Amino acid sequence: MNNMTKRVVLHLDVDNFYVAVEVVHKPELNGLPVIIVQKNSGGIVALSNEAKKCGIETGEGIGRAGNKALKRKGRAWMNSPPSHRFGRILTPVVPSQEDRSKS
Fold first, then answer.
1. Strand 44-47 and strand 34-37: pairing?
2. Choosing a second label site near 14 at 20 to 30 A (CA), which of 56, 66, 75, 83?
3. What CATH number did the domain enclosing 27 receive?
4. Which pLDDT tens digit goes with each residue over 54-68?
């Protein structure tokens, strides 16, 4: 093997993370079908496992979800304390990170 550096790509899908943050702020949402809607497009960016069981999928418009789930507007996730904490937890083991949601 030569002096080439090995590169490992790790993809973390944290859709449920955004719903979990909502549940922390509003515990009464726990166990309910919840979707997180992107402010600028109305698209579903995150959903709870209960919402998935209702047949709702990430990327759909909120119209497709109908009344099957509770709709929550997305917060400023990238500037929120939970998102920053999540990034800090990863930094020791993943020093170089790329956030797909910002690209």
1. antiparallel
2. 66
3. 3.40.1170.60
4. 888 887 877 777 777
Instruction: Give CA–CA dist 38/53, Å, rounded.
Output: 21
58 neighbors 45 (Cβ within 8 angstroms): yes
Q: Is residue 6 part of a domain?
A: no
Q: Is residue 38 part of a domain?
A: yes
3-state secondary structure 36-88: EECCCCCEEEEECHHHHHCCCCCCCEHHHHCCCCEEEECCCHHHCHHHHHHHH
Q: What are the pLDDT digits (tens) for 16-29? A: 888 888 888 889 99
Q: Residue 70: give the domain boundaries.
A: 15-90
Please state the domain count of the chain: 1
